[in-house]
Automatic annotation (TrEMBL):
The name this protein goes by in its record: Site-specific recombinase XerD
PANTHER family linked: PHAGE INTEGRASE-RELATED, TYROSINE RECOMBINASE XERC
Annotated Tyr recombinase domain residues: 121-307
Keyword Signal tagged: no
Pfam families for the chain: Phage_int_SAM_1 (PF02899), Phage_integrase (PF00589)
Database matches in Gene3D superfamilies: 1.10.150.130, Intergrase catalytic core
InterPro entries: CB (IPR044068), DNA_brk_join_enz (IPR011010), Integrase-like_cat_sf (IPR013762), Integrase_catalytic (IPR002104), Integrase_recombinase_N (IPR010998), Integrase_SAM-like_N (IPR004107), Tyrosine_recombinase_XerCD (IPR050090)
Domain of life where this protein originates: Bacteria
Keywords, ordered alphabetically: DNA integration, DNA recombination, DNA-binding
Listed SUPFAM superfamilies: DNA breaking-rejoining enzymes
Domain (Core-binding (CB)) ranges: 4-97
Amino acid sequence: MRSKEISYYVTSFFTQYLNNEAGLSINTIKSYRDAFILFYKYLEESGICKISKLKMDTLNIDNVTGFLDWLEQVRDCSISSRNQRLAALKAFCVYVIRKNPEESALCQGILKIRIKKAPQKSVEYLTVNAIEYLHKMPDKHSMQGIRELAMIALMYESGCRVQELIYLRVGDIAFSSPNTLTLTGKGNKARVIPISSNAADIIKAYLNSNGICDMAHPVFVNRYDKPLSRSGVSYVLNKYGQLARKARPDLFPTKLHPHILRHSKAMHLLENGVNLIYIRDFLGHSSVTTTEIYARCNPELKRKYIEQAGSLITETVEEYSEGEKEALIDWLRKNI
């Protein structure tokens, strides 16, 4: 087994393990693939070795560390992207160890590389007034306008990810009381999301005006009747974001990204007192800790929760000492 070269392991990793055993989503597999493409590119550009001469020991701690620094410094990738590429290489190393324990020493070096901590960014979101204004931008009397209004309305109402929007089929929408969408998220996990009758009417008007009735047909397509791409969704949203910003620069950032509608929906739910547990399920997060970022980024909400917590401690937990109360409130201040 020691004679096996890295190409053997990479081939079986992608063609057998990821597809059949691991059961990863197509998007995750594509992300892993991109990590290897970039790693090979780094090796060649840095003069370490040609792709045709790759050996298993090329995957060593020095080369991987150099690759991660190259991603940040040369390609200007974010820390998050750097960590994603490292995760792909680590997953590969775990697979190689399973296939051939003799490679353990080499792979353990990679597995010991720590992820890089990124400074926590504040969540960018639009106010309710901005969302209402954005909905007025498309011309709902034209076929293109009603299509793009439906896209914006659906993204905000459901808080869906871009990929979930792209994969959405006509049959995933239930026009009944209540109106719902079935979204398929990360890990092929499905969730049912309620939408307002107003949003449902906009989507229905779009489907009817474009003659889309096949249950298996994508809800949103391009001019060639193909599913939209991520860049296509970004283009539509940013187009109307620019129009809206010209009229109301106080309400809109310089550029709108699709995720901003998802962030906005989460923040508006939170501002209306919806429990983080329900917001977690609504957004399709695997853990409420992912959702907590919305509570942390809003100072007013943070202040309200801390005050409520202090009041609750005073009123219902009288056996706590003043020191214990302060310690608990301090913990909430740091973690909410």
